C-alpha cells in the first residue's frame, strides 16, 4: 500500500480519527521505548513476527533485518550499551488505512549522546524517515508488522554539557 498525496483523513481511505491517532501513538511510543530502554514496551509495539530493518543512505545494502520478539528485545539494550542517552523526536506522521492493515511514514530527528575516543561528549544526530507497515491485532491494537528505519544523513557535533558524566 502506498501513501498518496493530499489529505488522507478526508474520507478517501478507511479508518477514522481514532485509528490515525492510535497509529501516531504507536510511532511516538517506539521513540519513547527506545529512549527509555524499555524492552517490554518496545517488543509490544511489534507483531509476533514483526520486522525491523535499518538502512543508511550512504550504504548500498540495508543492515540484516531483525525478526520476531526474541530478536527485537535486544534492540533497546544494544542501543543503550552504545549510547548512554538518546532523544528521538518524531513528526510528520502520515498513514493510509485499509481495514486491519495500514502503511505509514514518519520523520525523526534522533540524537545519540556518547563520548568520542578522547572522552569528549558528542552527539550523533540522525535524520530518519520511517517506513511502516501496520497490522491491527485481534485485541484491536495496532502494531508494527514491519518498520524500516531509513537514515537519510547523520552528523557528529560536540556537546557543551551532557548527562554522560552525571555526578
UniProtKB/TrEMBL annotation:
SUPFAM superfamilies associated with the record: NTF2-like
InterPro entries: NTF2-like_dom_sf, SnoaL-like
Domain SnoaL-like: from-to ranges: 18-148
CDD domains: NTF2_like
Pfam families reported in the protein's UniProt record: SnoaL_4
Protein name: SnoaL-like domain-containing protein
Amino acid at each position: 500500500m502506498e501513501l498518496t498525496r493530499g489529505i488522507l483523513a478526508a474520507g478517501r481511505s478507511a479508518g477514522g480519527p481514532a485509528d490515525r491517532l492510535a497509529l501516531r501513538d504507536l510511532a511516538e511510543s517506539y521513540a519513547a521505548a527506545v529512549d527509555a530502554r524499555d524492552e517490554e514496551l518496545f517488543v509490544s509495539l511489534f507483531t509476533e513476527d514483526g520486522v525491523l530493518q535499518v538502512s543508511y543512505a550512504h550504504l548500498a545494502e540495508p543492515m540484516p533485518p531483525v525478526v520476531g520478539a526474541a530478536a527485537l528485545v535486544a534492540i533497546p539494550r544494544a542501543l543503550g550499551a552504545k549510547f548512554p542517552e538518546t532523544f528521538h523526536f518524531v513528526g510528520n506522521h502520515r498513514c493510509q488505512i485499509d481495514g486491519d492493515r495500514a502503511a505509514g511514514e514518519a520523520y525523526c530527528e534522533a540524537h545519540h549522546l556518547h563520548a568520542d575516543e578522547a572522552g569528549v561528549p558528542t552527539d550523533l544526530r540522525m535524520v530518519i524517515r520511517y517506513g511502516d507497515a501496520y497490522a491491527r491485532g485481534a485485541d484491536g491494537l495496532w502494531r508494527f508488522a514491519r518498520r524500516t528505519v531509513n537514515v537519510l544523513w547523520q552528523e557528529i557535533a560536540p556537546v557543551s554539557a551532557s548527562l554522560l558524566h552525571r555526578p
